[in-house]
Design goal:
The complex is a heterotrimer of chains A (427), B (178) and C (714). With 427 residues, chain A is α/β, with parallel strands linked by helices. Chain A contains 10 helices and 26 strands. The N and C termini of chain C lie far apart (55 Å). Classes of the chains: A alpha/beta (427), B alpha+beta (178), C alpha/beta (714).
């Protein structure tokens, strides 16, 4: 059997490991795996690109697996020749060079691509995205010569990039269309504490505005905002979001919506073609089909796809979005796995303005469907993560949830102890 | 694999320090002393309560370490596959591979991943070097309340069952009955 | 026992001295360095240890240890020291003591020790050998009252029998102001108690706070300082309902009818009002203790730190007696000592000084032999006023600047001394103000016999590694000083001294090291000793009437009420209502912690990490009214002064009570004070409020205070 995997990220790597692990178990012999990727480096962790830029982690440390991984797992690789399209009828992929690969099973793990906003001048040479290692390498090379930077988009990546460049000594401004930072992660209430911390670090925030033009003249470089404001910057990073990379399924029968649609077994609408990772739209615990651009999900989806590819009918019925903001002086996180409508949900919030603590919990019949936490202990995030992922009911300890040090210890059945004696003695 | 009876735990913290002793963990003495010394705690003790409802006291203590889960969330979360499970089920960390990203911490429902002074992750290793010699783990050995049990899952179930049964068999209602 | 394991490796069995307990431990040494400490599973403590003992390795290898004897060269507290030799140091200390005795008389010398830690007999012997009756000890508010009241009522100390050697375990256990599960104090161990608790049917907890075991107990949330009323109320119920042990009362107690009359003044409804404990709980506790026997009562130090300590303890001992819970298996036992005999004899064999201790005229029970002790506050006042008699002091293991009431007054007194020498492991705030400081060795660096309280065993503390620098063990320091001052009572060397102490058991120190523990357990313990000639020929207790004296003839003789009674605390909503208006919260100080022992271990990072800052427990309702959130720094203020501690919202107590921690200083803050004025509860306490009339006990546990948030910049 030949399995072709398009992509070389966490979903792809996970899938390969699942295939090889179960192959032995199932006594299957002849499985040839091809990995096709437009990138040429071994699989790496894209979440740490800012650490790379800051010099905290060298390139080797970003690699997901050891140098011998591809050999060890007997993966045939073709890197640097992007896949152009898929002929799903005839079960083959066509690469840009013209080369073709037949497949028995195909896994599409192409990830996500950055959204390119229609800003005049976006192709200038001092403008970068922060999506691939090659982006990070280019930025890292340029930084020494830069003094001012502008980040377009105050999403999770934008904030991370801003704090990273700020830590390296640059003068950083962030421009955001909506009226608060990280709008896809935190509500305005919670985002307020993030903004406070960013400003404390000396990062300038321009909210409720957008970049209309990026200019590069001999005397100055920078961007012009819709409001008319001009921000000089010798380095601009565009972080307005990502979208699933779906171009290669354009002329196929593979159903797509916002992403490539898959079921619990990571099967697309076309038999023998699977998809996993940032590229997919998959069902969550509540039957709601969602995008999920997070690490944890990509790994699990890849593993699930790999299992199903070799015939193990494994179902992944959970898709929890875990977003943790990096670069701040505290941990801020949002964990979501929600049904289509949040209308009948119970919303609980707690905040401490002085200490900069904010928490919001949205409960659907006792299950946490959305959690936002600012300045909470990381171990609490771990607990909430699992509670949301597996849809555990927190009804019994609802009133404990907002305790600063809430953790799994609070969820043991409160022992009903003491004072059985009273009834005894009075008999 | 490790069971702490929260109805017996008295919150004395001996397990925490026994573990530090056993693994020679930070913090280490400095001159002058440090006001807020910090180091990894491979077992942690929590107090829940007290709350007084209808004249009854609700309060308990419990110690939580890595649970060496059968489906370890930390393992799949680790980007660089630094966390693995031994054949005997005990979790272990390859500290050369670990990059200190904390993804494991954000996946573990027990807060088990701890970070040493070098930023790398450490986990309770179930004192396997002691188990190999037929000894008990450092925490189980020293607990004065005898509330920590380490063993194979069926052994633990047996102990839990015995304790529940002994409570039912008592001739008169005891103040200790749940 | 020392085993040669492999080249460079040794395993040594010794005894821990990090608290009172004395757990047996196994220490591994490699190439002269300790690599591991753990409990000995084959010992009486089953291999358990507490956080403090387990952190001992960081005491041995702590860079803050005092390494050499030093002598002050600047002003007191300036921090200028000169290293001197032991010869010089001991000669100097001995000379100062000698001169003081010659010029002012033996009472001008005070010898101090803090908590008992198994070397008490050396301190006592040293003081007696030098001729001074003045021991600078916290005994009058810590353990001294138990010593005295057990002595006069029953003839000897009683301990809870958790061991079942007589065939029975306690059916009812009362912990009265005690957290034995974390303290292992005063002769009992948590591991024995917790085992017995599993077998017990009833557990009664008397404590203003819902401490760790409160959820498992019948909890009596007693108002601080009102325990005597509670005990008397319980006796009222037991006696009036006819639940007392008729046989024991009739045959083995003295003064029952008079006690019965006294307790009529304490009906349960009145007691409920006084103590804030609901009446039904008082009734239940009394009935349970009287009918579910055997029962035992573990008494905590907090009962001794108030203005009515003597009568409170007397009442509780009477409660034990009228229920027949003395000397029967599973109740209160006076242990038969091991073959060495009581180690205290090592001190008591030296004749008591001729002069009476300071305060003997006022606090006559405190001054009563054999453990006649001086009243510390009176002694310190004498130093401050210049009226004397104390002029010279030697302190071995104590931090008076932190642990005695009114720290400012304590410092004032210390500064007026002509000479002060302090022996300690670390430069405590007290040591910083001394003239000579002697470095002391840790228990891992010491050879000694551990006998904290006379109980059924003694164990060997065996040196594992050499002490750092030139630190010496306590017993060696005493011996060398003793040789200079009263050689007839001291020995050529420590080993001789240890051999001497073991002579009754017929073994030498070398042999004892291998044996490790001499214990009388199981069938070797004797119950119902009063039915034998053990104390008195023909049977009986070691009291003047040969009975358990519910009506104390000795108290009568000394001019005190022979029957127990209740007295309101000095400061309370009822005795000082005007003060209560301004200081509307009841303050208790000094609740115990599992990882600190008084002022010890703030420089031990494994322990300091567990709680880096002092905590004051405040009820959430009270905190809300005062605008205090969990974790906020707050001021706690009394008429004596104010301190800062971190608030912890604690729902397990009456909202009118606040509990602050004691003995806090910050070794990381610069000397000489090391932050001793910041969070030390003894800034709040008083050395002038009325003391207990018989024992002179100071009030630490029932005061009035106010609490308010610390503002930015304070």
């Amino acid at each position: 059997m030949r399995i072709v995997i398009v992509g070389n990220g966490p979903a792809a790597i996970s899938a390969v490991e699942a295939i090889r692990a179960h192959q032995m178990m199932l006594g299957l012999n002849d499985i040839e795996i091809w990995m096709l990727s437009k990138e040429t480096t071994p699989a790496y962790a894209p979440m740490f690109l800012t650490d790379y830029i800051m010099g905290k982690l060298e390139e080797k440390k970003l690699y997901l697996r050891g140098s011998n991984f591809y050999n060890q797992f007997r993966i045939k690789t073709l890197f640097g020749d992007p896949v152009d399209g898929i002929d799903d009828r005839n079960k083959r992929v066509i690469l840009q060079s013209g080369r073709e690969f037949n497949f028995d099973r195909l896994l599409i793990a192409t990830g996500a691509v950055p959204i390119k906003p229609p800003i005049k001048g976006i192709d200038r040479e001092h403008v970068f995205f922060l999506n691939k290692l090659s982006d990070a390498k280019q930025i890292a090379k340029k930084i020494a010569a830069c003094k001012k930077a502008t980040i377009i988009g105050a999403g999770a990546i934008g904030i991370e990039a801003a704090t990273a460049l700020n830590a390296l000594g640059l003068d950083v401004s962030v421009v955001e269309l909506l009226d608060h930072v990280v709008p896809a992660v935190l509500d305005k209430e919670g985002a307020h504490y993030v903004e406070r911390n960013l400003r404390q670090k000396g990062i300038k925030l321009v909210l409720g505005d957008r970049v209309s033009e990026i200019f590069c003249r001999s005397s100055s470089k920078g961007c012009v905002l819709e409001s008319g404001k001009i921000i000089e910057s010798d380095l601009i990073i565009v972080c307005v979001g990502v979208r699933p990379s779906m171009d290669i399924v354009k002329s196929t029968d593979i159903k797509t919506s916002k992403g490539i649609i898959v079921n619990e077994k990571m099967e697309t609408s076309v038999p023998d073609i699977y998809a996993a990772g940032d590229a997919v739209e998959s069902p969550n615990l509540y039957g709601n089909y969602t995008l999920n651009f997070t690490w944890y999900s990509a790994v699990e989806q890849g593993w699930t796809a790999g299992c199903n590819i070799v015939g193990i009918k494994r179902q992944l019925t959970t898709s929890v979005c875990v977003n943790i903001l990096k670069g701040l002086d505290f941990v801020a996180a949002a964990i979501t796995q929600a049904p289509k409508s949040l209308n009948k949900c119970e919303v609980l919030t707690s905040k401490d303005e002085e200490k900069g603590i904010f928490e919001k919990i949205v409960l659907d019949k006792g299950h946490i469907v959305q959690y936002q936490g600012v300045n909470v202990p990381p171990s609490k995030i771990g607990f909430i993560h699992q509670a949301v992922k597996f849809g555990k009911s927190v009804e019994k300890f609802k009133d404990q949830l907002f305790k600063v040090d809430f953790n799994s210890a609070h969820t043991l059945e409160m022992p009903f102890l003491s004072n059985k004696l009273l009834t005894c003695a009075q008999r | 694999m490790i069971f702490v009876d929260h109805e017996r735990c008295i919150g004395c913290y001996a397990c925490i320090v026994a573990c530090k002793m056993e693994h020679d963990l930070a913090p280490y003495p400095t001159s002058p002393p440090t006001a807020e010394p910090k180091g990894p705690r491979l077992i942690r003790v929590f107090q829940v309560g007290p709350e007084i409802k209808d004249g009854k006291v609700y309060q308990y203590f419990v110690a939580i370490s890595c649970m060496h889960c059968t489906d370890p969330q930390c393992m799949s979360a680790c980007p660089v596959k630094a966390i693995s499970k031994r054949v005997d089920g005990i979790m272990q960390v390859d500290r050369d591979r670990c990059i200190g990203c904390k993804f494991c911490l954000w996946a573990c429902p027990y807060g088990a991943p701890q970070f040493d002074l070098d930023g790398k992750m450490m986990l309770c290793d179930l004192c396997f070097h002691r188990l190999q010699e037929g000894k008990k783990t450092a925490c189980e050995t020293h607990c004065p309340a005898r509330c920590i049990y380490v063993g194979a899952p069926d052994e633990i179930s047996k102990i839990m069952g015995q304790r529940a049964a002994s409570r039912i068999e008592k001739p008169r209602e005891s103040s200790l009955v749940a | 026992m020392v085993h040669q394991m492999s080249f460079g490796k040794r395993v040594v069995k010794t005894t821990c001295k990090s608290c009172h307990g004395g757990c047996r431990v196994i220490v591994a040494v490699e190439n002269g360095k300790i690599t591991h400490i753990e409990g000995d599973p084959e010992s009486l403590t089953d291999g358990t240890m507490c956080a403090k003992g387990l952190a001992s390795i960081l005491e041995v290898y702590n860079p803050n240890r005092i390494l050499y004897p030093i002598k002050r060269v600047g002003e007191r507290g300036e921090g200028k020291w000169k290293r001197i030799s032991w010869e010089e140091a001991l000669d100097l200390v001995a000379q100062k003591i000698k001169e003081a005795i010659e010029n002012y008389g033996p009472s001008s010398v005070a010898i101090g020790q803090g908590t008992g830690r198994g070397y008490n007999r050396y301190t006592f012997r040293f003081a007696r050998s030098v001729g001074t009756p003045n021991l600078f000890l916290p005994a009058h508010f810590c353990y001294g009252p138990r010593l005295a009241t057990f002595g006069i009522t029953v003839g000897g100390r009683l301990y809870c029998d958790y061991h079942g050697w007589g065939g029975e375990y306690p059916k009812t256990i009362i912990h009265w102001g005690k957290q034995l599960e974390i303290t292992n104090a005063d002769g009992e161990m948590a591991v024995w108690f917790l085992k017995a608790l599993e077998k017990a049917e009833y557990f009664i907890l008397v404590d203003p706070r819902a401490t760790r075991l409160a959820a498992r107990a019948l909890w009596l949330p007693v108002r601080p300082g009102t325990d005597a009323a509670l005990a008397l109320g319980m006796m009222n119920v037991i006696i009036n309902e006819g639940l007392f042990d008729v046989d024991f009362v009739e045959n083995w107690t003295y003064g029952f009818e008079r006690l019965k009359e006294r307790v009529q003044e304490y009906p349960p409804d009145k007691v409920a009002e006084i103590t804030w404990v609901p009446e039904e709980k008082i009734l239940e506790a009394a009935r349970v203790f009287a009918t579910h026997k055997p029962g035992c009562i573990q008494i905590g130090e907090c009962l001794e730190a108030g203005n009515n300590s003597t009568q409170t303890l007397r009442a509780i001992i009477c409660l034990m007696a009228i229920t027949g819970n003395i000397e029967r298996p599973g109740s209160m036992i006076n242990w038969v000592p091991p073959d060495t005999g009581p180690m205290e004899d090592f001190a008591l064999e030296v004749p008591a000084p001729k002069e009476l201790p300071i305060g003997a005229d006022k606090f006559r029970l405190l001054a009563r032999p054999p453990f006649a002790m001086c009243h510390v506050e009176t002694m310190l006042e004498g130093i401050r006023s210049g009226k004397g008699p104390v002029k010279v002091m030697h302190i071995q293991g104590s931090n008076p600047l932190v642990c005695y009431a009114n720290s400012k007054a304590v410092l004032e007194a210390l500064l007026k001394l002509e000479f002060l020498s302090v022996a300690d492991l670390y430069m405590s705030p007290t040591a910083e103000y001394a003239d000579v400081v002697l470095p002391v060795a840790h228990w891992l660096e010491t050879d000694d016999i551990y006998d904290m309280h006379p109980r059924f065993f003694v164990s060997a503390i065996q040196k594992v590694v050499e002490p750092p620098g030139e630190a010496w063990p306590d017993n060696k320091i005493y011996n060398e000083l003793g040789k200079r001052l009263a050689p007839q009572w001291w020995f050529n060397n420590v080993e001789e001294m240890l051999n001497y102490q073991l002579r009754k058991a017929g073994i030498t120190w070398e042999q004892f090291k291998s044996i490790g523990v001499l214990a009388k357990t199981g069938k070797d313990q004797v119950y119902y000793k009063y039915k034998t000639d053990y104390w008195k020929k023909g049977g009986g207790f070691d009291t003047p009437t040969r009975k358990v004296e519910l009506y104390s003839t000795i108290m009568e003789e000394l001019g005190y009420d022979p029957l127990p009674y209740f007295k309101e605390p000095n400061e309370s909503p009822y005795t000082t209502p005007e003060l209560y208006k301004e200081y509307p919260l009841i303050l208790s100080t000094g609740g115990r912690l599992p990882y600190y022992f008084h002022s010890q271990y703030r420089q031990n990072p494994w322990l300091r990490e567990l709680q880096p800052y002092p905590i004051v427990q405040i009820h959430p309702e009270t905190a809300k009214k005062l605008g205090i959130k969990d974790g906020d720094w707050v001021w706690i203020e009394t008429p004596r002064g104010r301190i800062k501690q971190k608030a912890m919202l604690f729902a397990g107590m009456d909202p009118r009570i606040v509990v602050a921690q004691a003995s806090w200083y910050y070794p990381e803050k610069p000397g000489p004070d090391h932050g001793v004025w910041d969070s030390n509860a003894n800034i709040l306490t008083s050395n002038e409020l009325p003391f207990d009339p018989a024992m002179g006990s100071t009030t630490f546990r029932a005061l009035l205070c106010k609490v308010y948030p610390v503002k930015d910049g304070e």
